[in-house]
Amino acid sequence: MLRLPTLFRLLAFAVLIAFLVQPQWFEPLLRPLVQENAPAIYNQGSLLQLTLLHLRTVAIATAGATVVALALAILVTRRSGAEFLPLSRSLVNIGQTFPPVAVLALAVPIFGFGEKPTLIALFLYGLLPIFENALTGLTTLPPSIMEAARGTGMTGRQRLMKIELPLAMPVILAGIRLSVVISLATATIGSTVAARTLGEVIIAGLQSNNLAFVVQGGLIVAVLAVLIHDALQAAERSLGSRMGR
Amino acid sequence: MIEIEGISKRYGETTVVRDVSLTIAPRTVTVIVGTSGSGKTTLLRIINRLVEPTSGTIKLDGEDNRSLPDYELRRRIGYAIQGHGLFPHRTVAQNIATVPTLLGWDRARIEAKVNELLTLFQLDPVAFGPRYPHELSGGQQQRVGVARALAAEPKVLLMDEPFGALDPIIRAKAQDDLLAIQKHFETTIVLVTHDMEEAFHLADRIAVMDKGEVVQYATPAEMLVKPATVFVESLIGAGERPFRLLAIDTVADAVEPGVAEGEAIASSASQREALSMLLWSGRKALPVVGPDGAVIGKVSLDGLAQRAAGPT
């Protein structure tokens, strides 16, 4: 039996797919938002293709951020790496506080227009939630379990792989989830430097004073963010409930 | 055989364990008792090198415990702690299989061992093996914790307040189970507790620690009759001494020839239980029955009174 929230999500997903594949079906809905003769549906490229590229950009940036943030968090929670904790914290914090727009502006002269500056901005911006959550997850493990893991004769690497990471996984996933949601929204500004994201639709709408474009670009991003957020949260829950949390 | 020789542990200026030497005979239960901060847990953790001593050596069956990498040493020594320390993301069967898996046993052997242990601890392998620890009661979790510690058939089992989190009824049962299992596997057990009742119930020998030093290392009977220091005496509780003394030996050792009236007591019961039954029923003597149910004599109030008397 499907519960109501699950039904809503399935419905939202179905509508999203329908809109990406057959946007003209929704033309009557968007028509009131535009002036006479202006197109109500984005007509400078395929919405589906832009969505896939948008997702790809976010996926690559988040994957990179996850690998680096997780590696840093593991390093600084080992006895040998503890002294790097303050340094890693400040580095990651700088990544978060430096506005993505500024990163784009700085990266374009070096890497040129296109996807690369966006990837860099999203990568830097996504590090902090993953790093902080991984750090929390790895440092708040129950002492009796860590003691038991040492007592059974696990090596440091075995403790990390078999005990610490699996137990910290729900918290780490929560960090990745935050990072993904932030990146999904932030990726739109990549289109100011010619990255192919859903930002294109919004920017085209702003430039031609076409409210329908802005709305459809924004809505696609928002629905994607909500669906992906919920899917990841469900994954965390199922992991956590197995452990009796 | 565990030989602890001149072990000390200092953290900066504070000495937690001071020059402790003990020899623990194989296949016995040694209980280390002391107040909190007496260094008893640290001493236990030095045996499996969870803590490295500042000085001194520990030999297990004549072999220095530093001759192996620490993790290999720990796979050979069972370790059970208060609050069980079960891995919450692994099933009961996987938890018990932890050390055999680390040792690379084959799957069939691991499965056989897990089933044997679960059965021994009165947990149905089919019902409990696939469960997660949080689905178990406190007593069951504790049993799984001990089963995990015993899975690789260690000769030595270290236990740090293993029954501390259990309620009194389950605790008494867990203690009896432990003694049965110790006989079954002939394990050498070193157990840390602050509960004197538990110490007297389980121990072949008791080591009393105070401020990092072992102040007395003796059998329960010796300790009762000749406490080495005022501290040991106060730990035992002067008012409890005759009763603790009676609790050590069974009725079988106090049987006298003769007959008595009324309800009988089993020869395997403790003399303390016999005394209790005598006083409660207002009789002077009880008939004693052997394991086969036949009356083998009596146990009398006078006889027990003599046994409970301290040295004069």
From TrEMBL, chain A:
It is found in: Cell membrane. Its main location: membrane. It is a multi-pass membrane protein. Belongs to the binding-protein-dependent transport system permease family. One of its GO terms (biological process) is transmembrane transport. GO terms for cellular component: plasma membrane. The lineage of its organism: Bacteria, Pseudomonadati, Pseudomonadota, Alphaproteobacteria, Hyphomicrobiales. This is ABC transporter permease. It comes from the Bacteria. Residues 51-232 form the ABC transmembrane type-1 domain. Keywords: Membrane, Transmembrane, Transmembrane helix, Transport. The chain crosses the membrane at residues 50-76, 97-114, 120-146, 167-191, 211-232.
TrEMBL record, chain B:
Belongs to the ABC transporter superfamily. This is ABC transporter ATP-binding protein. Residues 2-236 form the ABC transporter domain. InterPro entries: AAA+_ATPase, ABC_transporter-like_ATP-bd, ABC_transporter-like_CS, P-loop_NTPase. SUPFAM superfamilies: P-loop containing nucleoside triphosphate hydrolases. It holds the Pfam family ABC_tran. It comes from the Bacteria. One of its GO terms (molecular function) is ATP hydrolysis activity. Keywords: ATP-binding, Nucleotide-binding, Transport. GO terms for biological process: quaternary ammonium group transport.
